[in-house]
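@channel anyone free to eyeball this complex?
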Amino acid sequence: MTGSTAAGSTSRTAGLPAGATARRQHVAGAVALAGGTLGITAGAVQATAGRHIPDWTGHKNDPVTLGLLTVALSLLTVVVAVRLRRPTATAAGMVAAIATEMTVTGAVGFTTVGRLWYLPGPLLLAAAGLAVATGPPRDVAAAVRAGWMRALVSMLGICYLLLSGVASAPAATLAGLGGFAVFAAPWVAKKFPRWAVVLLVGGAVPFAVATWWSLITPALAVLVVGLGIPVVARSWAR
Amino acid sequence: MSQRTEHPSAADTPPAGDDHAPLMPSRRNLLKGAGVTAATVVVAGAGVGSYRAFDNGVLNAGEGAAYDPWRHWRNDPGPLGTVGAAILAANPHNTQPWAFHVAGSGVDVFADASRRTGALDPLGRETQVGLGCALENLVLAAQARGYVTRVTLMPVPGDPTHVARVGLAPATIPPVSPLYQAIGRRHSNRGPYRSQPVPGEMLTALTRLGDGLPGTQVRWFTGPVERARLGALLVDAATAIVADRQQSVDGFAWFRSSRDAIDRHRDGLTLDGQGLSDVMTAVAKLLPTSSRSAGDQFWLDQTRTVHTKTAAAYGMVTVADPDDPVQRLTGGRLLERIHLAATVRGLALQHMNQITERVDREASLGRPASFGPRLQALLAQPGQRALATFRVGYPIRTARLSPRRPVEDVAR
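replying in thread with the prediction:
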């Protein structure tokens, strides 16, 4: 991190005045806000009318669940977009996290609501790029490097969340809860190391056991435990 | 993690305060970088696998709108409800080659010419047998709803697409047939069967289902020698179909290899319907979509190692003239009755039409008949000819649902 922290201003100013960074982030946030709002609309249309307009919504097997998943992800995007639009510049680590969220939502939507995502999807992906470009990429890259392994574990949690959208009812609950647990585990490890391990194992194993025959979920569970425990242990050691 | 701490040599340590000095990565950093890269690649692979599982229905086989007709077929108590039962009938390659016109006084059944299987069914035999199967379900459903039915086959001379008219007249509600109850549980089971033989009295009971369906008979193949001979002919026919490019192409056109295709078309053959174990089905869905030639080879292997190897008995519905539409429809009704009755008795059944597909293909091309005489010799029933072939046995695995188009898509 090369930026200096000025009171009431920014932690990320190297190469750019704090005000300029904040203004650019404000623009990126506005684009994300538009994409997120349209995404909520697209998800709501999928959930309520997806079955009647399948050519537009991708002929989905379960439009209600996928629509609600899209609404949830888009809501999260709106929240982070608002965060990005604060008057003060956002720190590099947070920008990286926000850009990741926008990228994931922007990509996932293409498979949940069909053609309805043709507008919000590119907007969100563009917003992610704008967010990263608002300041020195070196700062963002450093922040990404610092949290990369934790991000990988969280990506496995996102895989669980993705599968929760198509699993049958009891397994879907396990996948949903497990996904959130795995996603959160590496980020709470520093303060709650034991709980982080519980979240990893408790999040990954039940869904894998319930759907062992699918092969992909046991493989995910092995990865979560095999990758997550060392990551958590390292956070703990720090 | 400082190089200075780990490797205090001057060679490893960049000059203090010089951010741009060339860095020689230490072995530890190299290993760390390799580890992070490997973890990234593995997680990316897991992401791809998860997306494939998400997109191809690994976790939700048999669920969703494409399968809803299996769950709601009893809901409508009126004449339209009979169509809900009819669309669950056995039919060639799950093409669902039917359309229905429902009026208060009856239901008309039509062939949908756009849903033929081309070179696999050049003479329309399988289509009409499938329509006969649907007709049988429709009649059972009408009776269960308290109607007396009057069936007229090919009611309009000169209109080959109008295959049946089922007149409905109110009557007292009779006891519901167990065959009707089995409509929602009847599926083609392409998995392995147990070695346990099917009792003779059970086959006799299935044969009696042809009573009231004039001109139809059933020929059973239960002995090891005749089963082996028929099995060999089935494998030969499958081999010939795979070698016949047009038949292979026309068959593959009805294979739905992705969940998107299933949800879009709601017809055709699927990986779920191949009788594989849960694990193998998941593997097949996670792997890239197979090519036509790979699919052909899979079918041929399954025919050799599963379908013919584990058949407890073969059955053949026979008629005097398999080219006559009325006899095809009547034979189809018997075939459906047998499948429903087998379901009631816990038997699995798989339709195996490759021999007659080759017979009709050779006839349509004007080639010398090679499969017809062999089939006739096996049948050994003077005056009767094979219409449709199937195998029966006690299943090892439960058959999965096949996708179906909803009533509103086929009724007018």
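from a first look: Residues 272 and 400 of chain B are 6 Å apart (CA to CA).
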